[in-house]
Records
---
Amino acid sequence: MKDTKTQTNSTTSSSLEKAGLGHLKIATAGSVDDGKSTLIGRLLYDTKSLTDDKLEAIQEKSKQRGFDYLDFSLATDGLVAEREQGITIDVAHIYFSTRKKSFIIADTPGHIEYTRNMVTGASTAQASIVLIDARNGVVEQTYRHFFINNLLRIKDVVIAINKMDLVNFSEEKYNIIKGEIEYLASKSEYKNQNLTFIPLSALEGDNVVTPSKNMPWYKGETLLHHLERLDAEDINEVSQTRFPVQTVIRPKTEEHHDFRGYAGKIYGGDFEVGDQVAVLPSQTKSTIKSIHFFNEEFTRAKSGSSVTITLNDNVNVSRGDMLVKIDEEPTITKQLNATICWMDKEPLQASQKYYIKHGVNDAQAKITQLNTIIKTDFSGKIENPSALELNQIGDIQLKLSKPLLVDAYNKNKSNGAFILINPKTNNTVGVGFIKSPL
Amino acid sequence: MNQKTLQVDALESEAIYILREVVAQFEKPVLLFSGGKDSITLVRLAQKAFFPAKIPFPLMHIDTGHNFPETIEFRDRLTRELGVELIVRNVQDNIDNGTVKEETGRYASRNMLQTETLLDAIEEFGFDACIGGARRDEEKARAKERIFSVRDDFGQWDEKNQRPEVFDMLNGKIDLGQNVRVFPISNWTELDVWSYIKKENIEIPSIYFAHKRKTFLRDGLIWSADDAVVFRDEEEKVEERMVRFRTVGDMSCTAAVLSNAVDIAKVVEEIRDSSISERGARIDDKRSEAAMEKRKQQGYF
């Protein structure tokens, strides 16, 4: 394609022109009616991210329904059924920017029957906001969301204690809730989490974007200020380099007669030309000959980059294979121990068969054992259950039809998770976190 | 070779990853090309994903017959330069054979009629994955879309029963007769797309830039008057204004905005300071609060 003739040298501050970090992804969670949509609407409104036409629509709708305030939740709830019931059914993605940062918020349902959608929204998040209604304190859904944030190892979690205006901005209330969550955190296996507690009123705007005049006892930062300070690079854990091959590029043209490139995305660490690599599962050794991105070559490529790599030896590589550094090999295994979050109406039972998708690799999987159901209020486990129902979380063992190249999720997030697919319906029925290869 | 370190932007990497998954997981993918900035961006991403090989799927344009001439000319030239196959299917054919009925009245548009033509074409060619340039920031119902969005024979979207999409694992398993709509730039904002076009120096149709055009006002929006498809009342006075278009849909439902932005840098600036959302100028979205969701359930893109 020819270039445009209008060459310019002006700089802009868009996310795409910053050094590759894109947007910071935040998941919100909380119980029904905790005011998540209102909080997001408030964030948009106070950062002037709501365009005039959207704001007009909200004003008009609020008036139509006879509300005496602006119903910000109308900014996010997009499905007819959601508007009818006034609840959030599915994850909505909301985009806004301040002068310092661009954000994607995955606004996830609080309703218990949509927990799987919450996991969906939180799985790609670098930070999470758990909302609590100050009047009700910690409820079942709070436990569950807090648990899921820990299971997913989301590093930065904000506990937003909302509706402070309805409890007279009571510091005592805030401290009771804070204490309960800190006690939960002490029982969690994941110790690297940054917990921040913020008392706010989404409806009135206290501590969302502007500091509250009603809570002089709170000396911390506002929610937006906290989010602006987060750096995706600090939040993402560094781990060993993994390069799962998505597809092999062979142009077979005069010009590129012998080109054979492996296309994929680099996870965890970096790759350099000259690196000694092992091709898995065959365990053939080679070295990196070149790293391509479109029509350019690079000596080094950073984690998160979708590239095309060529090797110095003519080895047989295909989709699902993985390139890793010689002394950083994952486990090659046909059996797994995993924690699974079940997402289907049809329960999981031992001895059932599914497809497993681990990154870009597929195999068949049989559930060999259903060990426990883990109670999401941190109160323990149920041993040897007969089934795992929708929205339950448990420990299982799996047998695979072919070896997969895996890491434990707590060592390598990108290579430690998988999904299960029901072969009869093709639905994604569960998401698993590898504890250990067997 | 000089020491050069690469860090691809997260959005660009994500889109390339998705396009590669499509080619690996599906038999017959197609890129739905409208000639607008989003689908032009997709074409550039597809070039990058498979370089030095050519884009391994055809482009398909569902032509309402009401496109800006600038767009059609651009479409033909681009596909010729890239050496990719272009499939064109016309809404007019469905009107002629009676499978759809032309709307009448002052808001008549062929935008809704595209769905039928698209579904026919999917069936005709047996496409199992249709790549589109929809973005989640465009509209509330789209904010809920998955990246792989499964549709049945009728193109229907069941919004209450979407597959969970966790991490970046994309489940493309479907039954015969189903197809998947794929949205690689789901997570881009309008500003991201414009910044990318600027950074990559991608050529786009001239109607995106400010130009003098015969226009008239209706419902507070500016409409192009130099074509016959927009039904105009006698009292709607035609004046020449300096305008550009923010989206390139069907001429009958795409309004212009007043603008002096004659190049990309100025467009990016204007978008950043703008206070009306992109689809605010699309009359067909305003028909009812649930407009987009209804259309999507019926198989609209």
---
Amino acid sequence: MDLHLKIWRQKDQKSEGKLENYDLKDLNPHMSFLEMLDTLNEKLITEGDEPVEFDHDCREGICGQCGMMINGLAHGPLKNTTTCQLHLRSFKDGETIVIEPFRAEAFPVKRDLKVDRSAFDRIISSGGFVSINTGQAPDATAIAVTHQLAEEAFDSAACIGCGACVATCKNASAALFTSAKVTHMALLPQGKEERSERVIKMVKQMDNELFGHCSNTEACEIECPQGISVLNIARMNYEYSRALFFKRK
Amino acid sequence: MILDSKIPNGPLEEKWTNYKKTAKLVNPANRKKLDVIVVGTGLAGSSIAASLGEMGYNVKSFCFQDSPRRAHSVAAQGGVNAAKNYKNDGDSVYRMFADTLKGGDFRARESNVYRMAECSLNLIDQAVAQGVPFGREYGGYLNNRSFGGVQVSRTFYARGQTGQQLLLGAYQALMRQVGKKTVELFSRHEMLDLVMIDGKARGIIVRNLDTGEIERHSAHAVVLATGGYGKIYYLSTLAMGCNGSAIWRAHKKGALMASPSWIQVHPTSLPQSGDYQSKLTLMSESLRNDGRIWVPSKNNETRKGNDIPEEERDYYLERRYPAFGNLAPRDISSRAAKERIDAGFGIGPLKNAVYLDFSKAIREQGKEKIQEKYGNLFDMYLKITGYDAYQEPMMISPSAHFSMGGLWVDYELMTTVPGLFALGEANFADHGANRLGANSLLQASVDGYFIAPYTIANYLSNEIHTGKISTEDPAFEKAENAVKKQIEELINIKGTKTVDHFHKTLGKLLYDYCGLARNEEGLKYAIEEIKKLKQEFYRDVRVSGHGNNMNTELEKAGRVADYFEIGELMCYDALTRNESCGAHFREEYQTPDGEALRNDAEYQFISAWAWTGEHTEPELIKEPLVFEEIQPTVRSYK
Ligand SMILES: Cc1cc2nc3c(=O)[nH]c(=O)nc-3n(C[C@H](O)[C@H](O)[C@H](O)COP(=O)(O)OP(=O)(O)OC[C@H]3O[C@@H](n4cnc5c(N)ncnc54)[C@H](O)[C@@H]3O)c2cc1C
Ligand code: FES
């Protein structure tokens, strides 16, 4: 199949960027989207141009490193799918595809399609953990956790931190990412003890990083490759109010 | 050179306890005076960096990804082993030790393997305390499943995302220390050289991958937790960035490489479908608990899987290995698949796959049950291949997966370079010639959480009077210049072929001549071909862009340059081992019915290799393996 690509090229954070046109012919529809970009890069390099920089690593939909806006959608047209798991069979022969980086004030562009998502790491380091030291944990069966609860916690813990939620949100809010971690930890007995301090610190850090507020459009859930539910955000709001309430008392 | 493995005295069960009793400690007030560099943020790297940070050392943590949470450990699907015996099915530390030793074809050190089994008990506790949502029974207790090569259920899992959840636990522990400023984080930094002063590891040279800047970092000890180099085959189950450069550059500075040719080929990955392909996706081994593997019993079968009647199917694993059937260990299952494919019974468009069939399990347990167990894997299969595995059998095929080889380490996980430690998949320890499923997450984690915190402290106890190590030392300058020179050289070749072209060509050579099967003639041929390919690379590679900014092609070029040398060493290693064991199947050494033929009389040792220079053959140093507890037997899964 043939594709016409419009790709965002930007030398570095300070330079201005613009969309450039590229044509690719005779692509195999079984190719993944990133393999298509590999093919383009091979072509650019042999022709003496600089390849398109994009982030990726596992190419299995689990590391969270890939991600770009494809025709205005984070990770492209398929539901619950990362860019690396998207295949050309999801596009039409001869189609024009616009490829841009994830955009948000908190995610500055580094080059072409690569953005800086370290704000997420800082949110985690502000409190997204259980304060247990290594080496001397109590026996794992000492506290029973029901199957349902473990599964529910897992649904939140499955967030891969790709940033699609931020990129797709009109306010560039990190509420889905942050709330997923808050919920995962608040649900489990191991994480419950610290739930109040955790949510307050994480929300504060989220604001410091210049992420916007959540205004409940729920676009994040639709674009999330892991299908993380917006109910996590409700949970975070509950945990936050609860924490403030008990703090005041 | 005589290798001192520093195995502690005493009976097997007491060695680790004895070691811990006598290991030296560092007074908390002195820990602040000591710097440690940890390269890698996978399970091994995150866990050791968090542990050392907690203890009060100054830790610097490096990874090449944009966040430590993306290290390759995140991709592990199936599970992690621990001899908890929650199922009451006869498991114990000793049984796990025995399974692992046998699974590794008696080519691992007894003391290390025992310690890993022993520490497995604590890992599950640690992970649960961190909030890892392992699979649970309805009553709230932890659940298990079984994995290849064993007859008990000792694998703990978090759906098909065990690595992700374990890594997030370790990453969160790491980020907690980053918040407390005991650990300083350098993501998007790649280690390009090891710096040695007076024979000890004293620092590293790194490239900031965002800016191209070359930086010097000094420390009293350096820990490499940089994962495996299986991506050398190009097509593999590993992440695109996985590479062998950190350990290779340390090797060139004097650390020995052990068993480099033992690379596990996993039996259940998705088959290759075209030459544009960049990786092969793994389907978790846990699928073999319910899926049955078969090929048509007729050559060149053209019917679809579902149309082939039961009596015309060859369930070759169940046929050849009735005791373990579809759960036969990886090396055996992969080889059996290759044997059928090579004999013309392969299926799929390229005839390079076998079936993994769930129809019986779905009939017996219902679709819901199967969905609950493996739903995400079936979804993944659908996304990648476009086929629905609830309706028709999956197609799977073997692919390169895990490097059992790596830097040689002693019982303390220290390499032959004093002050240089290697943890997780970067070292050679514990798995022998074949890794049992779910033992690798375990090894990486216990190395970092429970073992290295003692052994590194033992080393550092002699360093408290050393004082700060200056990055102005001439050794830093020299290493930095060498790194800069290599970058310039690669950029200036300005040839015609891309880095990926060379990587793919090398990978194909290794698959064909140093892959699932090897022979003397092929290995000798491969060594010559790799030499030629390397020369061509330095003449004709094209690395676009510059050295002083973000440049992925340059990153890849440096890694492929090292792969040529690693590949050559792999072939030497395979050539000198005139026997078949685990992942290493020398065609000349097999039984009449095609099983691996080990030669304990002559090859019961670990091959450790010393770098002797670019144009000379590497030097082989042997570490004899002594088995006190279990006498090597012929591995039979029949
Ligand atoms: C698809 C797949 C599934 C698997 N499933 C299982 C399973 O179910 N059970 C199991 O037990 N094992 C499994 N394994 C194996 C297991 O995941 C790995 O062996 C293990 O995670 C390795 O951990 P590690 O900490 O040693 O290294 P990794 O997690 O690979 O981490 C390596 C780190 O080193 C860094 N690094 C490397 N080189 C450099 C450099 N030069 N400079 C700076 N940083 C560098 C990387 O950035 C990364 O942070 C699987 C492997 C694969 C590929
Ligand atoms: S590359 Fe890892 S999620 Fe896409």
